[in-house]
Amino acid sequence: MSSPATPLDDVLADLAAESDALDAVLRGRPDDDAGWRRPTPAAGWSVAHQVAHLAWTDEVATLAARAATGEKQPWDDVVLGAMGDPEGFVDAAAADGAAVPAAELRSRWLTARERLATALRALPDGTRMPWFGPPMAPTSMATARFMETWTHAHDVLEGLGETPEPTDRIRHVAHLGVRTRRFSYAAHGLEAPEAEVRVELVAPSGEVWTWGPEDAAQRVTGPAYDFCLRVTQRRPRSALALVAEGPDAEAWLDVAQCFAGPPGPGSEARR
Prior knowledge:
Layout: H1 7-26, H2 47-67, H3 73-84, H4 89-98, H5 102-121, H6 138-159, H7 171-179, H8 181-187, E1 197-202, E2 208-211, E3 218-223, H9 224-231, E4 243-245, H10 247-255
Parallel strand pairs: 1-3
Antiparallel strand pairs: 1-2, 3-4
């Protein structure tokens, strides 16, 4: 009898499905296809930059997983590089990756994704991986990688003039968006309010997802897809069908972000 699926298994399965969906768009585009060099909503980033960023981050996350088991040196080298160029090291890694032939870049990304899944599954229960912020559990890392994959795939599709197809896999992004509410304030140099906020979102399937106390006086409601676009800063609030009830709920949607690092310039934050 096979073992029951763990939360990590569930997230990794959705991560693989999201990766397959992006790869289906990229597959078959030859190296000389202008599509790989087409600009995306991230200033200065082409489709190739977006894929290179996913590959690089998966590789770095794999090094972090190995560091959690004692293999410190490669991870320490990455941290030193980040400290040496805190503003530009992510852009530099994306530019380096985007410079290689498209077939090579696609293979690099797919290989990195498989190696990351293997590394995360190999970590003992209770392990915390080092990261650029607080240490992360394997399931949290997989959720973060899902969020980035979904977000950058969205940028790729926009760059190629294609329309994303929402799926209920975005629950991982929505969950991360709710969990990072207090972080959103901290990233903007603000103190998070103590009041609870109820979140009720309608999934692409029509299911209703909820977080927070049912009797909370303040709440955020609307389409889950719109909420995910907001917490990844892919759309301004004015373009979304989200409703905030209460001053703290209103303020949260103004600063919401579920990605690490400093806040970006609103809907133009694409990294």
